[in-house]
Design a protein that fits this description.
alpha+beta; 8 helices; NADH Oxidase; homodimer; about 200 residues
């Protein structure tokens, strides 16, 4: 698939068919993830791939608990009608996270001080590569971080060490809908480009 | 360009030709950046594009100061020979950041509490899209966060408001070398994939 086509049609997919994802496809999306840059090319990343139905269900329950205890005021107080649409779709996913055929948890080693904002520069580019590669294989994904509200419990469940942070929870599967991929809703580039100075 | 070709040949480029970058190319890479996901699709991002030579030089001096005051022990104590290679190249860039034809500062609005690790999930995927789109246009980039050591001064210089964080400093230009793009050095995917449980 053409790069720009993948970039311009990579929608957030939150409704999946129950069909299993071939192991080869999982390996391929992670093989794209690890081509991304990381600070000093240290590649302190790991990707936990959860397919076991019991574990998926357990992670899904923790995700739902995190969703339920989260602050949703940013959704309910936003006058933008698209926000309500995103909220409804995110709630749908929160109730069915464990049913996604594959859950991927991208992780990054951080040392004792834990992850900072710029730690993200060493893992989220890899997550974006993963999602673009998935798109090119017809697989839907969405990057979620709501799981952070139950990160401790999820790390215990999976056996993730203390000095490793989870960066996201990415469900992956074939989209339930035929029009899951397509142009994304965004502000125009001209609204967010500043030349030489802010504003 | 094919998606997988872009992903698999997007090397960090730190040596640039002085040739200017067409405005159209700059707009195109940012138009790819903004197709990336962001939390709740809020798109709280901005991209400051610095081409003015005086400003580039000033940002370059601040970057060099941040580099000089940074902790380089992780480079000098790492037995991996690739680390020395990355360090040498990063030092070259630190001394010439201001000479890159374009400096891009991807920013994200954060509110008063400042950015957290997961704030990165709403800006670094966009940076990765930007770098992949640049690759497809023959433009080299590298994601750097060393500037954070002088972020306050850089924000003052550019007029970036307090509630907005800089996520990276991305120099962009045509690579000085003909073999700047190509396969990247990475651990094998099999080393970083865990199935169902850590380890």
């Amino acid at each position: 698939m053409d790069l720009l086509e993948a970039i311009h049609t990579q929608r957030a997919v939150r409704r999946f068919k129950p069909d299993p994802v071939p192991q080869d496809a999982i390996t391929r999306v992670i093989d794209s993830a690890i081509r991304a840059p990381s600070g000093g090319n240290r590649q302190h990343w790991s990707f936990v791939v959860i397919q076991n139905p019991t574990l998926r269900s357990q992670v899904g329950q923790l995700y739902k608990a995190a969703w339920d205890s989260g602050d949703i005021s940013r959704f309910t107080h936003d006058p933008n009608p698209n926000t309500a649409r995103v909220y409804k779709s995110a709630q749908y996913l929160a109730e069915r996270m464990g049913e996604a055929p594959v859950l991927i948890i991208p992780c990054v080693e951080t040392g004792k001080q834990g992850p900072s904002f710029t730690t993200g520069a060493s893992i989220y580019p890899a997550v974006q590569n993963l999602m673009l590669a998935a798109r090119s294989l017809g697989l839907g994904t969405v990057i979620t971080t709501i799981h952070m509200g139950r990160e401790k419990e999820i790390k215990e469940l999976i056996g993730i060490p203390e000095n490793v942070a989870t960066a996201a929870l990415v469900p992956m599967g074939y989209p339930a809908s035929d029009d899951a991929f397509g142009p994304v809703r965004r502000k125009a580039a001209s609204e967010v480009i500043y030349i030489d100075r802010w504003g």
